[in-house]
Amino acid sequence: MNAIKRLGGIFDFDVKKSRLDQISKELEDPSIWNDQARSQILGKEKRELDFIVNGLSNLAMSLKDQCELFELARHENDDETLKVVLDESHSLEKSVEAMEFRRMFSHPMDPNNCFINFQSGSGGTEAQDWANMLLRMYIRYGERKGFKVEVLDISDGDIAGIKSATLKISGDYAFGHLRTETGGY
């Protein structure tokens, strides 16, 4: 629990835990399902709060367990167990980094899906080829991030590439990941 308090300033653990409890009680009331829009908003907020609250709680428990295991291994001069603790500490560090990265998404639209539109403009075949390269790059990026990528519309170029295309990228924080992607020549 001490680790949670130290991390709480960054993640507002106490506030988020209290809000999670409040939302859980609201969602237990059968009448909430009469208002679908409200229940969807609460469900989405609950999922996000669950990720943070449960993530921090699990991190704190894992950290405590690893500290105890470290002390036992150190007193027993058990190098093999110390290596396991070191590996687990790297895993815990990656989990904290992932949570810190996700915390950077503070824009209200960040959790949403997004659309990306590609236009080759008036640059001829080279611009159409370049637009096609960008399209492929964003499709691969979205798939690598675990997003669902749909090509909603595509207009082939005269000789090579594309004149235009529209992607829908769906998944947690797709908009947040891609909101700064703008450009044009």
Q: Which labels suit this protein?
A:
185 residues; alpha+beta; Methane Monooxygenase Hydroxylase, Chain G, domain 1; 2 domains; flat
Major sheet: order of its strands?
Answer: 1-3-2
One letter per element, helices H and strands E, the order comes to HHHHEHEEH
List the uncertain runs. Answer: 4-9
- Helical fraction: 55-70%
Proper CATH architecture of the largest domain: Up-down Bundle
Tell me the overall shape: flat
Q: Count the strands?
A: 3
Largest sheet: 3 strands, antiparallel
Number of continuous helical runs = 6
Total tally of structural domains = 2
Overall CATH class of the largest domain: Mainly Alpha
The multimeric state of the shown protein is single chain
CATH level 4 superfamily of the largest domain: Release factor
Percentage of residues in strands: 5-15%
For the termini, the CA-CA separation is: 53 Å
What is Rg?
23 Å
Average pLDDT rating: 87
